[in-house]
Backbone:
């Protein structure tokens, strides 16, 4: 990573992405949003099985978007760049093939909660507070805080935070399903390691496909999931091999009638074996 405020460690089966801007409560500016998108692209090309995301220090997981960064933009730039770029980065994180574990070692506010919403499970320290204070500044939750957050936390939980301005402690967030586990302050990293070990013990392909299917059921990315899984099946089939061979040899393809697993042989009729 070229931005020292984002540290990406992909040296083992458990990847780690740490926001290192504790002096600004790990708030994100435009360059950090771009860095998050680049980190996701790098992570997906590596052999890690799980990604753990956290913020440096104990005060904040992330306070969200840096107010000084976005308040200086014109309304047009805010919509075209700040909101859209944030969506691209957060979508990439939510749609990683590998499970993502968020360790809320400090408060998750506004865009910080939207960032946490991209994770599969969220582990919170007992001292953590969670909220969506944007409307108090005259702005809306712009990084899917009214969309993905509703899908993952439920509409009423988001109403309480985003519309009514309620700030939740860790226990209330657990009761509402916003976080999946609350641990004593400082024990979040150890809890994440245990959760990551449980994921690694499971089948990697089955885990990846299951996450994709859950995302699709949730409405996260149903079109891409369907095409990715269908493409996965087709790319591993004997039909593709025959089609490519026919293309290279400049001849008509001779596909097996039975569905392309190669058991009937190219051009076989499958007669007595019809199902």
Residues:
């Amino acid at each position: 990573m070229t931005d020292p405020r984002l540290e990406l460690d992909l040296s083992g089966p458990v990847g780690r992405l740490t926001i290192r801007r504790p002096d600004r409560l790990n708030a994100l500016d435009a360059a950090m949003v771009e860095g998050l998108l680049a980190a996701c692209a790098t992570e997906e090309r590596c052999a890690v099985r799980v990604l753990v995301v956290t913020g440096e220090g104990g005060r904040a997981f992330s306070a969200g978007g840096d107010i000084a960064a976005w308040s200086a933009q014109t309304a047009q730039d805010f919509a075209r760049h700040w909101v859209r770029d944030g969506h691209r980065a957060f979508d990439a994180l939510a749609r990683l093939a590998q499970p993502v574990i968020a360790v809320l070692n400090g408060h998750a506010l506004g865009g910080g909660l939207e960032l946490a919403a991209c994770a599969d499970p969220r582990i919170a320290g007992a001292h953590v507070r969670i909220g969506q204070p944007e409307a108090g500044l005259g702005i809306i939750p712009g990084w899917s805080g009214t969309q993905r957050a509703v899908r993952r936390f439920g509409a009423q939980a988001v109403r309480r935070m985003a519309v009514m301005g309620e700030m939740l402690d860790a226990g209330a967030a657990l009761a509402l399903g916003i976080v999946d586990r609350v641990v004593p302050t400082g024990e979040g990293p150890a809890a994440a390691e245990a959760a990551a070990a449980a994921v690694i013990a499971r089948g990697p392909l089955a885990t990846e496909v299951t996450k994709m299917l859950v995302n699709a059921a949730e409405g996260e990315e149903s079109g891409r999931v369907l095409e990715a899984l269908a493409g996965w099946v087709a790319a591993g089939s004997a039909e593709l091999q025959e089609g490519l061979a026919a293309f290279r040899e400049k001849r008509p393809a001779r596909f097996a009638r039975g569905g392309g697993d190669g058991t009937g042989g190219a051009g076989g009729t499958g007669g007595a074996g019809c199902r």
